[in-house]
Amino acid sequence: MKKYNRKQAVVMTIIGTIMVCSACGKAEAAVPDVVGSMKMNRDEMLTVVANQDKIEDKEAFARLLLQMYKENSFESMKFSEDEGYPTSLDMNVYTRKEDIGEKDPIMTVEYKPEEWNAEYDIVNATEQFHLYVDDEMVEDN
User: Fold this and answer.
1) 20-40: per-residue pLDDT in tens?
2) How far is CA 14 from CA 9, 11, 28, 80, in A?
């Protein structure tokens, strides 16, 4: 078994730490996040970064974003429910934060009621809402 001197051991420890930290950063980077929010009355409009180069299944990704919103589980932004839940939700999704303002969104997601009613909100009246991805209605599950 080869013995390492103190200097070599320190260098190997630093390199190992850097490799572990960069791997952790890449794993977290794949999680979508909200980077902007605007509310008009009770309609919520979000700017979301996917933190991935390609979205294979846009419908599943849209459902994930909707679930994350309802669970208030986005990392960078937490939403207040003091005034109730939104009556509609619109999201523009970009690949990376740097693409915002430079490129078109890679997808759009809308969650809106079939008929507008001030009593409907996206959490307590889900049977009244439909999910749209890139302006196409997604089948309800």
Assistant:
1) 444 444 444 589 999 999 999
2) 9, 5, 21, 42
pLDDT tens sequence across 64-107: 999 999 999 999 999 988 888 999 999 999 999 999 999 999 99
pLDDT tens-digit readout, 43-63 = 999 999 999 999 999 999 999
CA-based nearest residue to 87, from 67, 60, 115: 115
- Output the CA–CA distances (angstroms, integers) from residue 38 to 9, 46, 109, 113, 127, in the order listed: 52, 6, 15, 19, 25
Distance CA 50, CA 64 (A): 11
- For residue 117, the 8-state DSSP code is -
Q: What angle do CA 102, 55, 53 make, to 5 degrees?
A: 50
Residue of 46, 44, 111 whose CA lies nearest to 83:
44
With a CB cutoff of 8 Å and minimum separation 6, the contacts of 112 are: 88, 89, 90, 129, 130, 132
Cβ proximity of 130 and 111 under 8 Å: yes
Residue with tokens 């599943």: 60
